[in-house]
Design goal:
alpha/beta, Rossmann fold, Dehydroquinate synthase-like, alpha domain, 7-stranded mixed sheet, globular, binds nicotinamide-adenine-dinucleotide, binds the ligand O=C(O)C(=O)C[C@@H](O)[C@H](O)[C@H](O)COP(=O)(O)O, binds zinc ion, DHQS/DOIS_N, metal-binding, 3-dehydroquinate synthase activity
């Protein structure tokens, strides 16, 4: 097979860094860390422990100290106690402002590692190495970092730019299929809000589109990162435009909370997008065909489209804490058409509930 060169996607504007997509690119980590760094903390889950140990081995001759912080898997990593565990390791190793953190893992780990890097000494160098599709196309690439609290998802965090992001597609070889498909929800999201080519590729041949060895898959990853990079370059701290990346997340985050964070993020967001599509049809101008397109694409990825009918009141209460809400008023991202997102605010609660009935089982 001919070697495809790595692709570099730039984030510019308020903050500048490069996202590299390719295969077997971890030899770029020392350059990403830079000359000034002496100590490195690699934050990772047990599921990628082997990669973490190999990475540590490869860095040890170049840096004064390379430490591992193995954290609990998935959402259990995004807790203040786990951040404190990482701070403790850094404190005991006398980490200074010229030292660095590497986030190696899925979106939960890169969110945590980013938050630890943002808060240690008010900010140390951060290199993100996502190992899930979702991390590569979304969580690790946009500078949103954070942890959950009992009250809700990502309620504590910081906007903090990485120095570099390395998306090494060869790391996806061990990723379970259901995780890969959950990550495709965020890829589809980028298609719905901004990049119809993504939807065309998914519709043309979903098997090839979800096979990490195909050019179609790589194209999807690069297109989705391109959407995120363009939006983040224009609005890093979510003053406005960036809210479009939250398509499907108002209800999706409430579902994750209701499910006590046992559901995959992408799975909850799939239902959230179906809800947002119904809301776009009822309160806006989204066509029946565009709503059907959501249904077809998400179900071709074997993602769920509905949620139990009796849960509305609890979900509504959780949605009040959504970061997009203003003065108690819920705001949703909806579409007027594919690739035409906008904010929907002040919608009557009966309309919100009516749209929910459309996706309720
Ligand atoms: N910061 C952002 O902008 C942003 C964007 C989207 C999602 N997120 C967050 O990302 C999280 C979801 O990320 P996720 O879907 O990657 O979930 P995850 O981090 O929980 O990873 C999913 C599972 O895959 C395992 N895994 C990871 N890489 C693997 C590999 N290469 N081989 C085998 N197993 C592997 C993990 O251990 C975990 O069990 C959520 O917390 C979500 O809120 C953040
Ligand atoms: O990058 C963004 O901005 C997003 O909204 C991307 C989302 O996919 C992601 O799940 C993000 O973590 C949600 O952020 P939040 O601000 O709603 O917590
Ligand atoms: Zn998301």
């Amino acid at each position: 097979m001919t070697e495809v060169p790595a692709t570099e996607i730039a984030v510019t504007g308020e903050t500048e860094y490069t996202i590299t997509v390719g295969r077997d690119i971890l030899d770029r980590v020392p350059a990403a860390l830079g000359e000034r760094v002496a100590k490195v903390l690699i934050v990772h889950t047990p599921t990628v422990g082997k990669i973490a140990s190999e990475l540590r081995e490869s860095l040890q001759s170049r840096f004064q100290q390379v430490l591992l912080a193995e954290v609990p898997d998935a959402e259990a990593a995004k807790r203040v106690e786990v951040a404190a565990f990482c701070w403790q390791i850094m404190g005991q190793a006398d980490f200074t402002r010229t030292d660095a953190v590497i986030g190696l893992g899925g979106g939960a780990v890169t969110d945590l590692a980013g938050f630890v890097a943002a808060t240690w000494l008010r900010g140390v160098r951060l290199v993100q190495i996502p190992t899930t599709v979702l991390g590569m196309v979304d969580a690790a690439v946009g500078g949103k970092t954070g942890i959950n609290t009992t009250e809700g998802k990502n309620l504590v965090g910081a906007f903090y730019a990485p120095a570099a992001v390395l998306c090494d597609l060869s790391l996806l070889e061990t990723l379970p299929r259901n995780e890969l498909l959950a990550g495709m929800a965020e890829v589809a999201k980028c298609g719905f809000i901004a990049e119809p080519e993504i939807l065309d590729i998914l519709e043309a041949d979903v098997a090839r589109a979800t096979d990490p060895g195909t050019p179609e898959f790589r194209r999807l990853v690069e297109l989705a990162i391109g959407v995120k990079a363009r939006v983040v370059s224009e609005d890093f701290k979510e003053g406005g435009l960036r809210e479009i990346l939250n398509y499907g997340h108002t209800l999706g985050h409430a579902i994750e909370h209701a499910e006590r964070y046992q559901w995959r993020h992408g799975v909850a967001i799939s239902i959230g997008m179906m809800y947002a599509a119904e809301l776009g049809r009822m309160a806006g101008s989204l066509s029946d065909e565009a709503v059907e397109r959501h249904r077809r694409i998400l179900s071709s990825l074997t993602l769920p489209l509905s949620y139990p009918a009796g849960r509305w009141a609890g979900l509504l209460a959780t949605m009040q804490r959504d970061k997009k809400a203003r003065a108690g008023m819920l705001r949703f991202i909806v579409l007027d058409d594919i690739a035409k997102p906008r904010v929907l605010a002040g919608t009557d609660e009966s309309v919100l509930q009516f749209a929910y009935q459309e996706i309720a089982q």
